[in-house]
Amino acid sequence: MENGVFQRQLIFWLAALALFVLALWLLSDILLPFVAGLAIAYLLTPLTDRLERLGVNRLAAALLIITVVVLALIYLILLVAPFLGGQLSSFIESVPGYVAKLQALLSDPSLPWIQKLLGAGFSPDKSMGDLMAQGVGWLTAFLHSLWSGGRALVSVFSLVVVTPVVAFYLIYDWHRMIRTVDGWIPVRQRDTVRALAREIDAAISGFLRGQTGVCLILGSFYALALTLTGLNFGLLIGLISGLITFVPYVGSMTGLVLSLGVAVAQFWPDYGSILMVLGIFLVGQFLEGYVLSPKLVGESVGLHPVWLIFALLAFGYLFGFVGLLVAVPLAATIGVLVRFALRQYLESSFYTGENSD
User: Which one-letter DSSP state was computed for residue 354?
Assistant: First the structure.
C-alpha cells in the first residue's frame, strides 16, 4: 500500500516537473519581466517584513522599497552607463590592435622561449585568427540568445515598467501566496516538504546574497587596482570580472585572461607592470577562495562551482536569458532534492539489505 502511494506521488511530481519545464520552454519569450520581478521580490521581501515589524503598513512598505530601488537603478544607469558604454566601444575598437601586437610578439624570432613554451606546432597568425573568430562567433551567438530569449515582449518598456509592478504585487502578497501553496501540500507529507522548502530557501538566499557581496567587493577591488596600475580599460575589465564572479572562479579567470592580454600588448617589455596585473588577480583569487566565499557564502549552500557552471550553461542554452535568471534557484532546488533522495536511499532497506516488516 505504501509503495503504491509513493509511486503515485512520484508520478505526480515528475509530471508536475515536466509541465513546469514545458511551460518555461514555451513561454520563455514573455517571462523575462516576471522572472526578474520574482527575483527582486524574493530578495526584498525580508526588508519589507522588517519594515512591517517596525509598524509600517505592508502596502506602504512595499511601495516605498520598489520606488527606492527603481530610482536608484535609474540613477545608476544614467550615471554609469554612458561612461562604461564609451569604454566598451573603445575597447572593442582597440582589440584588433592588441591582437596585432600579440601576434607580432609571438612571432618575434628574438624570443624563442615563447615558441618553446607554446609548442612547435603553434602558429601565431593562424591560432590568434581562429581564437578571434571563435570569440566573435560566441559573442554573436550569446547576444542572439539574449535577444531571442525575450524578443516577443522584450523591450526596455516591458522590463522597466512590468518588472517593478510584478515585484510590488509579489512582495505585498508574498506570505499569502506561501500560505496558499502550503495548503495544497498533502497533510502526511507536509512536514517533509516544509523542511525541504526551508533547506532550498537557505541554499538560494545564502548563495544569492553571499555571492552578490563577493561580486561587489571583488569588482570594486579589480576595478580600482587595475586602474591604479595604469592598465587601459582597467575599470571596465575589473567591473566585468566582478560581475562574472557570480559564477565562482570564472570571473577571476576571465578577467585574468583579458587583463594579461591588454597588459602584454600595452606594457611589453615592462615585466614589472605585467607581473603587477597578474598579482592583482592572484590576490583576488586568494580573497575569493579563502576569505570572501567562506565568510559570505559559506559551505552550507551546497552549490558546487562545477554544478553551477553546468546549470548556467544548460539553462542559458535552453531558455535564453530567462534560463540564466532561473538557473541558480533551480540548481539549488535540484541539489537539495537529490541530497534528500540520497538520504532516503541510504536509509532504505534496499540499500541496507534489511527486511522491513
Answer: P
Give the Cα separation of 13 and 30 in Å (integer): 25
Question: Per the domain annotation, does 6 fall within a domain?
Answer: no
As a whole number of angstroms, the distance between CA 222 and CA 202 comes to 29
Instruction: State whether 235 and 157 are in the same domain.
Output: no
Are the CB atoms for 251 and 200 separated by under 8 Å?
Answer: no
Residue where a domain stops, chosen among 155, 184, 213: 184
Domain that holds residue 77: 28-109+122-184
Read off the amino acid at residue 141.
Answer: A
pLDDT, tens digit, 9 for 90 and up, residues 232-286: 888 888 888 888 777 766 777 778 888 887 887 777 777 788 888 888 888 888 8
Is 10 a member of any domain? no
- CA-to-CA dists, residue 73 to 3, 62, 80, 305, angstroms: 53, 17, 10, 29
Q: Kindly state the helix (H) or strand (E) to which residue 247 belongs, with its residue range.
A: none
